[in-house]
Amino acid sequence: MAHVVAEPCFDCKYTDCVVVCPVDCFYEGAQLLYIHPDECIDCEACVPECPVEAIFFEDNLPEEWKEFIALNAEMSKQSPNINEKQDPIEGKDCDTSRKRA
Q: What is the DSSP string of 38-88?
């Protein structure tokens, strides 16, 4: 099992989560971040850092976002690793209503 980046991250790339990951298992796609399922150690350090609450333990992922399990597994293998904080990217499809203050 691993943690999964889901829909709330879409077009809302905040990288607060990547700097707390002790195993550097985050990867950067064009519109969201991904977690490599074989590298994630389920430490949960990233979960409270995500300002849009997009990171879930695989078993707790809402049903409507289950496809993100396979998407994270596939895209993390094709995307560059990211382990440093970057300026946030809020694209046109970013739902900032989910963002914590």
A: TT-----SSGGG-TT--EEEGGGS-GGGTHHHHHHHHHHTTS-B--S----
Write the pLDDT tens digit of every residue in 11-21: 999 999 999 99
Q: What is the CA radius of gyration of the chain?
A: 12
- Span of 34-38, 39-43, 97-101 with lowest mean pLDDT: 97-101
Which phi and psi (to 5°) does residue 52 adopt? -110, 10
Question: What is the Cα–Cα distance from 94 to 79, expressed in whole angstroms?
Answer: 20
Spatial distance between the Cα atoms of 54 and 57, rounded to a whole number of angstroms: 10
Q: Could you give the CA distance from residue 82 to residue 9 in angstroms, rounded to a whole number?
A: 15
Tell me the C-alpha distance between 37 and 11, whole Å.
21
pTM for this predicted structure: 0.93
